[in-house]
Sequence to fold (263 residues):
Amino acid sequence: MKTTIPAALLALLMIALMLTGVGCVRLTHPASNIPSTTGNEPEATGSEQSATPSTGQLPTPIELSQTGPPAVPTILFFKAMPEAISTGQAVTLSWSTRDATSVTLSGIGDVPPTGNKIVVPVNSHEYTLTASNKAGSTSLAVSINVTSYISDRPDLTIIDFRVEGKKACYKMKNIGQTAVIPESYTNPNARPSLTYLYVDGTYRDASRVEVLAPGEERELCFPNYEWTHGSTRTFSLPVRICADGQNQIGEYDKNNNCLVLDW
Fold:
């Protein structure tokens, strides 16, 4: 006995089957105008089975952006070495930042995202490093304590270091307050001295320095050492330059003779 299915119900059933992705089903209905399958039709591919009923085409995928807002810059470190000095002594400021489009140092101006700067503050001073980008800014400060004194003896200190081609050069200053007569070599405090260069912890060369008057600065290079570490700083090579390397000058302070930095 055959069951008769109304045409309207049959149409609704076919639509439901198409929406759920089920293939065609052969139904027998004497009044149906739907042709029966012959079994020779090609199987629908996966893309055809998942196509939308209205257009027969796959829906266009939607791409979602994963980009978030920019991060506020980070100051990885900002330090001073040493943090306590006597008048005229040099300090090395070192810093490193991340995600910064501009970096400024108070009293200096624009500086690289990573770098260092040798300064000679006259009085106690606070330096502020500020890293900025579109998301905002971050600041960090270091303080330098400067002690003033009056001395009747010379006091030699290294206030700068630089590379000129294959030469390692430096600047020395006598921050003592007493006049020194260059010709008076009979005075043990008024005679030439030697400045020593150490690279990566090893002594490399010496530079002769004639007598410096109070407050006088002098720029010199180490004559016998060939600098092979490049002119661009990578902040990974320890360098130390020490005035009066032979400890022959009767200075006011022997603890401020050396400048230490990472090249």
